[in-house]
Design a protein that fits this description.
Shape of chain B: globular
Radius of gyration of chain B: 19 Å
Number of strands of chain B: 7
Mean pLDDT of chain B: 96
Strand order of the largest sheet of chain A: 1-2-4-3
Shape of chain A: elongated
Structural class of chain B: alpha/beta
Low-confidence stretches of chain B: none
Helix content of chain B: 25-40%
Number of strands of chain A: 12
Number of helices of chain A: 11
Strand content of chain B: 5-15%
Distance between the termini of chain A: 41 Å
Radius of gyration of chain A: 26 Å
Largest sheet of chain B: 7 strands, parallel
Order of helices and strands of chain A: HEEHEEHHEEHHHHEEHEHEEHE
Largest interface: A-B, 41 and 53 residues
Largest sheet of chain A: 4 strands, mixed
Strand order of the largest sheet of chain B: 1-2-7-6-3-4-5
Structural class of chain A: alpha+beta
Oligomer: heterodimer
Order of helices and strands of chain B: EHHHHHEHEHEEHEHEHHH
Chain lengths: 330, 386
């Protein structure tokens, strides 16, 4: 059995900054291709200035038996500058596998370490933070309360154009409070990710601060949402894609799913879109995209067609010239 | 038997099948072998009979717990819900008695064939039972319980520490199992040409799946459009495969020869003909001589029109492996015997004819798209292969 090379472990986790604030245990998660790391159990690792020990909450045997398709590493803070890894799960064979319940809520996709500024921060300082952390949005906190949000673009466009001799002086003079947006649309950690996507799309926001009551607990950006959605619609298990037109009546999706169940085929994912049929109030058409955990979708396709559903993919099999639809299926 | 081709087979390998009307039907092996015999292509050859792979062999790739699960299932034991977690007992991979042994025997066949070639006992070898490319380390998938090619590769790597192996998969489905198992290994180049996973099982096999860590650049995927047809398939094969294999410089080529891209296959929509299934092994043969002293192992794979496609495609494969010319006409005794069993009319010629499958409407668009995929792939992958 190969063990994960320590350098690889450090490399992987080194890309993710350890969380250093907050009294709650903060978790970092990372996924691996490598096999169980028993060789490293309780051995010290240094990461981003932290001294960490690796601990497995499962022994090898359990590791195999509890074949969780999704390995995860949690970094739990145990004291100042110390922490430990908890490894769980199994071996990952395909990229972008979805963990159970993961990526569906804002809290699963948000960044927890939020770089913030105060209302009196100068544009120069704020822009320096954006550059250093490679971010574009800064929530503005006053006495711990969220009072606004500002982007690097807001600040840049507030000053004279690049090359103008007055630009530097202007950037030093401008305060965040001069340019920030005071009405801030926020999200909650428990919001579904699609709500965040819709809020950002409708308001043309690049990010949403995530609030738990009065506390800023994270930030979710358009690229976080994009990544979550990409994972949501991606291929996580070997499966075939099926597209079915759904008549606009209640229960049609349930019926489709029921037919799939009757064929004893497992569903990997379901997406259904609603498309306007045309002029305003016109009839709506929907298309369901389902991923089936089978290499033989033809049984499901046949049953769906028999039940009157229009299957958009896979295409109907060409009529066999020998009038035997099961040609080649001994 | 150096310089000769070896056909690794045993009737025991025909036990690997799921019964009933399941599409994976080992009758296709019998039909292929009898067609080869009847055409005289096996004259002077005798089958090399393999032993089943041992548990140690299987564990080079598969997890112990998974092998144990398959063995439980094999005896009709085990919790069905739990087995389903391992892909066992699903409608794709139903459990049958002695499933472990049947599949371990197939793995043993591919392993034996691989060793014959590497030890110089045969120049080329074929094991048409092999090619179970979807099996993952701990999951049965797409009719595949154990991954024979992956086990053979892993064993050869132990036996020949510096070996570089190129695995070339032209099954209509992405060769996902082999790819994931060697995804970070720069000494195993996996190349898969398949119908795009946008719709088709298993859904993976995009151009961007290139391998990772040290293995970055050593997973190569050429996804083709549905209804690609012969011309575009051959064009893309020629554009990509020789160049990629030359850049890698293998010591051994293993080809997976699934023939489920054929227009008659019920599981996919690539719409190629026997021309592709003759072109591919012929070219792989030439490349093996050009790049690695002829060391070439060919395995089977998918193929679900067992009457009209598989026997002819794999007979063409054996002809290429054994340096023989395939006759044009199907033999009468074979037609007579299998014609009685077949629900469809059997073809009278060993090769499809050009006008059997007329070109489809969007052909130009499809060819163009495939061409661009091939270009994109080469651009991405060639700078990474050393």
């Amino acid at each position: 059995m190969r063990a994960l090379r320590r350098s690889a472990l450090q490399h992987e986790l080194g890309d993710r900054r350890a969380t250093t604030r907050g009294a709650h245990p903060q978790a970092l998660e990372a996924s691996y291709w490598e096999e169980p790391l028993s060789a490293y159990n309780d051995s010290p690792v240094s990461l981003g200035g932290w001294r960490l020990s690796i601990h497995y909450d499962l022994d090898d045997q359990d590791w195999y038996y509890n074949r969780d398709p999704s390995p995860a590493v949690s970094l739990i803070r145990t004291g100042a500058g110390e922490g430990r890894f908890i490894m769980r799960g199994g071996f990952r064979e395909a990229p972008l596998r979805l963990r159970e319940g993961e990526m569906l809520l804002v809290r699963d996709s948000m960044t927890r370490e939020v770089v913030t500024v105060g209302p009196e921060t100068t544009a120069v300082e704020a822009l320096a933070l954006c550059r250093r952390y490679r971010i574009r949005h800064l929530p503005v906190l006053q006495e711990g309360r969220l009072v606004g949000i500002i982007s690097d673009r807001d600040l840049r466009s507030a000053a004279p154009a690049l090359g103008d001799p007055d630009r530097t002086a202007a950037l030093e003079r401008i305060r965040v409070s001069d340019e920030m947006a005071r009405e801030v649309t926020t999200a909650r950690p428990e919001d579904p990710i699609e709500d965040a996507a819709m809020a950002m799309y409708e308001g043309k926001f690049g990010c949403l601060p995530v609030m738990e009551g009065e506390d800023l607990v994270g930030i979710v950006t358009s690229s976080d949402v994009m990544k979550a959605l990409a994972r949501l619609v991606g291929v996580h298990e070997p499966s075939s894609r099926l597209e079915v037109a759904l008549p606009n009546r209640s229960g049609s999706l349930a019926e489709v799913v029921g037919i799939i169940r009757d064929e004893e085929v497992n569903l990997v994912s379901v997406l259904a879109s609603s498309v306007d049929g045309g002029e305003g109030e016109g009839p709506k058409e929907r298309v369901a995209v389902l991923r089936l955990a089978t290499i033989i979708p033809s049984g499901v396709v046949k049953s769906l067609r028999e039940a009157g559903y229009q299957v958009l993919w896979p295409p109907a099999e060409p009529e066999a010239d020998d009038a035997n639809p099961d040609a080649g299926r001994a | 038997m150096s310089g000769r081709a070896a056909f690794v087979h045993d009737v025991a390998l025909e036990d690997y099948g799921f019964g009933g009307d399941h599409p994976f039907n080992p009758v296709r092996l019998r039909m292929t072998i009898e067609l080869c015999e009847s055409l005289g292509l096996l004259d002077g050859y005798s089958f090399v009979s393999p032993d089943p792979a041992t548990d140690e062999d299987l564990r080079t790739v598969h997890y112990t717990s998974y092998v144990r699960r398959v063995q439980l299932a094999s005896r009709g034991e085990g919790d069905l819900e739990e087995l389903a977690q391992y892909g066992l007992g699903t409608s794709d991979n139903p459990i049958f008695p002695d499933i472990h042994l049947a599949c371990a025997h197939v793995v043993g066949g591919t392993l034996r064939a691989a060793r014959l070639v590497m030890n110089g006992e045969a120049e080329h070898a074929v094991c048409i039972s092999g090619g179970l490319h979807h099996a993952l380390r701990s999951q049965a998938s797409g009719f595949c319980i154990y991954n024979d090619a992956a086990v053979a590769i892993a064993r050869l790597k132990e036996e020949h520490p510096d070996i570089k192996i190129a695995y070339l998969d032209t099954d209509v489905h992405h060769g996902d199992g082999v790819q994931w198992i060697f995804y970070d290994d720069p000494d195993v180049l996996t190349v898969s040409m398949h119908e795009t996973g946008r719709y088709l099982f298993p859904g993976t096999g995009g151009v961007k799946e290139l391998g990772q860590r040290e293995g970055n650049g050593y997973s190569v995927n050429l996804p083709l459009e549905p209804f690609t047809q012969d011309g575009s398939f051959v064009e893309c094969f020629e554009a990509v495969i020789p160049e990629v294999l030359r850049a890698f410089g293998p010591d051994l080529i293993i080809s997976q020869n699934g023939c489920d891209g054929h227009a008659l296959d019920p599981l996919a929509h690539l719409s190629v003909t026997t021309r592709v299934y003759e072109h591919v092994p012929t070219r792989v043969h030439e490349l093996a001589h050009e790049l690695c002293q002829g060391r070439w192992l060919a395995v089977g794979g998918g193929g679900y029109d067992i009457w009209r496609v598989v026997p002819r495609a794999w007979t063409a494969l054996w002809a290429a492996v054994s340096h023989q010319e395939m006759p044009e006409e199907m033999p009468e005794d074979w037609l007579e015997k299998w014609g009685e069993e077949s629900p469809v009319k059997l073809p009278l010629l060993t090769r499809d004819e050009a006008d059997d499958y007329p070109p489809i409407e969007r052909a130009e668009q499809i060819e163009d798209r495939n061409r661009r995929t091939a270009e994109e792939l080469l651009e991405k992958v060639l700078p990474l292969i050393r």
